[in-house]
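ligand=alpha-D-glucopyranose
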Amino acid sequence: MNVITDIKVSPQLAGGELWFKDAIIYQLHVKAFADSNNDGIGDFAGLTEKLDYLHDLGVTTLWLLPFYPSPGRDDGYDISDYRRINPDFGTMQDFRRFMQEAKRRNLRVITELVINHTSDEHSWFKRARRSKPGSDARNWYVWSDTDQRYLDTRVIFKDTEKSNWTWDQSANAFYWHRFFSHQPDLNYDNPRVFRAIVQVMKKWLDLGVDGFRLDAIPYLIERDGTNNENLPETHAIIRRIRAELDAYRSDKVLLAEANQWPEDVSDYFGNGDECHMAYHFPLMPRIYMAIAQEDRFPISDILRQTPDIPNNCQWALFLRNHDELTLEMVTDEERDYMYRVYATDPHARINLGIRRRLAPLLANSRRKIELLNTLLFSMPGTPIIYYGDEIGMGDNFYLGDRNGCRTPMQWSSDRNAGFSRANPQQLYLPITIDPEYHYEAVNVENHQKNLSSLLWWMRRVIAMRKNFKAFSRGSLEFLYPDNAKVLAFLRRYEKETIVVVVNLSRFAQSVELDLSRFAGCVPMEVFSRNLFRPIKKSPYVITLGPHAYYWFALQAQTNGRRVSKKHVLPTINAPAELHTLLDDGRRAQLEQAILPNYIQTCRWFGSKARTLRDLKVVEQPAVSSETNAARFWFVVVSYVDGPTETYALPVKIASGNAARAVSRSAPHAIIARLAGAEETILYDAVWDAEFRSQLFEAIVQRQIMKGRAGDLVGVPGKAMAADSSVALGKSQVLGGEQSNSSMLFDNKFFLKLYRKLEDGVNPDVEITRFLTERANFSNVPAFAGALEYRHEKSEPTVVCLLQARP
Ligand code: GLC
Ligand code: CA
């Protein structure tokens, strides 16, 4: 059963072909994210500056909306040149830098391959309309003398377009388009079109992108007597694109935008030889329906109808995106219902959908927002977050088309929400100032400061999702409890079993789950790590507050109460040299795997219940100039759910007999083994007598140990400083494991090593020092000195306190 003792920190780019299954995707428009040159339009340089924010959120993959040159009449989906960057967003060099910085943070990048149509300003179209009918250049697009062909084909943008044909004066013919009339469809019956698109794909692969969203792919081929959607010839084209992709690069993905019913969408996976991923379009509106009707049926029903997909494929799940919330894949009654509930204001409707963001759709109810995200992160598929929804941004449906959901990202309460320093009138779209979603309140900076904000909740949920492969790779099995307001299902993968229980109702509910086959297991609520009552053969009763949700990891009862803490010693492949141990390569292993696991086993590590986000060793001063002298590591630990902390961890390397002695006397102090012929270990130096004397000396002799950003400085107390004759006898570690570490020297001096380092005044030190040096109070251990970390412009931090016995 699952036990989360191994908390993963900043996982490396998940290796292997199937990385996209474990991905968390963040969808954004470059123009909407951050404006670096203050012209009112976001750009690649601005986005690059915000990569840390995205990394900290925990997403692993960015999906960028079209950033190519374009007249901008369909927000960039009307491309006039596939091979360049829209100059508004920067240069190719900016793009390269962005890719580099993204890779440095282990973020993958998916871009758009809009292959169904181009802009009418693309040079291919300009050439086609000038060329002779029947010529090759003309046949890059689909022409007709009459607009009465293919009449069974639906019009998608029905608010703006009357027909899929538009008359072209200079060509003296109609051209075919499934979307806006300024977006002529490419003709895939012409092999040159296919070859040109493959060249485009290769160009962006050369630039390092990890995959492509294939925009509007059901419509590539037209045939008389059909509705021109999902034709076998269209699938053949996609299979060939996939073959070209695989032959050119490994580990790259295709994501299908095919707004179709489940059977038809799943065809875009082929036999695992078309797209790797496809959006689950039918599921999305049904999530909204389920919460509005307070009934699980819409969700369980559509997932029941969803065919199994090949092993190397994955659904892509989303709650919202840059388009309207599409209601094409629901029945007429369902659509009416959705409009009634979610688009009471007629302005909110467009085409067959609703142009609103997540928070306004859910009436800004935090509970509902959490609930829907919980589903997004626990149902089978790779979740996609639409930029701004992680802070509950609002929208503005007065802006026309779908622009109300595409307004600038809100970073702070500064001018233009911190997005740009341009004149507010110059922004590509105005910032949201709706009173309920005003950028002065809804922005990253405010959310960052408040640990209870939606942003922090999102970080926690993302981190938790990443802890369980069952979410990204596991099977799905619905439980059907009598209470239909409760949705409950299992996600299982290898040894992991997760039970997801969700209350779709605004009132409290009680539910009986049949978990009899897990009798003997204990459900652990994963966010609190609280253990719930063990499962028996009888129905398992759970009560849920309004819109409440639980993720339970099932654990075998034997290690239920006390999660097994058995610590398997990791091995570092490195020479036995402390001064090079944190060099490239090994540093990552230590910071991302070894130390996060080690500190979990230490009594002095007080934040065991928190979810680690990141761990870094920021200082490593040596206690003496000898090559293998012990070093003081300062370990900075940040969490998904709490303020950052710094811990002191003195370390040393021992080999042979010395190593064996530590293994016998203080096995818990061993951090890792070093590969090599002889037994060699890295361990907590407190357990080394030489280190202990060095500490003592350092204080008494006013030594300075040089660090990177500051120094450790010995400060003897007055009496100590006066008496240079203090000789050092035997030392020992006191009282085993405590929240700080204490040592006794020759039965005369106590030395306390603080583990969690706090900036500024240390009350212990202040009081003992005052009582000793000012009040001459002799009944307490006297202040004998301290070891302080001094760094620029701030109060020294006390690392050790030395006291003499009364
Ligand atoms: C896709 C895009 C949408 C665009 C359409 C036509 O559906 O998501 O934004 O308008 O293609 O290019
Ligand atoms: Ca700009």
